[in-house]
């Protein structure tokens, strides 16, 4: 049902759950490719990308005002969720698997001294990647399925607050879904405990992948009451999760939800070091082509340009004052010399 939903999109979709006013998402039915999601995230955070994003959904924002955090949640097993309080929603075409590794490397290279929070988590695959302050903030976050299921039986568990209805506390597929809901709850709880994260100058990056609905659909079918109840629960949980994160960062965070029923190809992750730097080179081109474009060029150009302008203005002002200076009144050397001549 599409009632009360700001943007009704059939099929796989990208939904902007929260965004500050200065990050301008235009409402419209403009599809975006799955492989372009990392570039879109990078642009919302004020970073440059190697290829221009020719997508009218995101407009250019102010240069010196950027969000303090970006949170991307990928939900597998469902093509859309009823999120009535979203900013905008767009169709997702070519739903190939993607990661935010490139964005994480950019955050690390530009803000290494500020130790920003970078958290990439997929509970179903027990995949976790943390960088910077995330190592200290989320050290108590349950990662393995065994740890998360143990967390469900402790105080403060989401089981006490959720209307489970057709879901069971004993079935494996149901526990996987509830475990992912618990992880979302624990992330917001840890962020509320460490509110200082929103006050530093480095942007934070969160990437979460949830596949509990996919497992429920495979186990019970997408017409089952378990799947319908889980879809409703997840929509409400994500809505509250987005509002909590947005408020914790002082209304300066972008929260996106990508819903994908099925990825077109399996995701292959290559192990690499975040400290590696890619060398920009031109290995003997016979056509005498230019070097590859470096996305830091715009930053370096602005630094050099404004520094040259400031130095030129300083030289002009100093020269003007020296030219119009009265040696008898403005210079202590000439003043003392004149007094000595008079005494003699």
Assembly state (oligomeric): single chain
Helix content class? 25-40%
Count of β-strands: 8
Secondary-structure-derived class: alpha/beta
Stretches with pLDDT under 50, minimum 5 residues: 1-8, 266-287
Task: Please tally the helical runs, counting DSSP H or I stretches of 4 or more residues.
Answer: 10
Ends apart, CA distance between termini: 103 Å
The largest sheet has its strands arranged as 2-4-1-8-3-7-5-6
Which sequence of SSEs, written as H and E, runs from N to C? Answer: EEHEEHEEHHHEHHEHHH
- Largest sheet, described in full? 8 strands, mixed
Mean pLDDT: 82
CA radius of gyration is 27 Å
Anisotropy-based shape: elongated
Strand coverage percent: 5-15%
If you had to describe this structure to a student in words, what would you say it looks like?
This protein has 344 residues and is of the alpha/beta class. It has two domains: 13-260, no CATH class; 296-331. The protein is built from ten helices and eight strands. An eight-stranded mixed sheet has the order 2-4-1-8-3-7-5-6, with helices on both faces. Helix 5 packs antiparallel against helix 6 (212-220) and helix 6 (212-220) runs antiparallel to helix 7 (225-248). The longest helix is centred in the C-terminal third of the chain and has 27 residues, at 297-323. It is elongated and about 95 Å long.
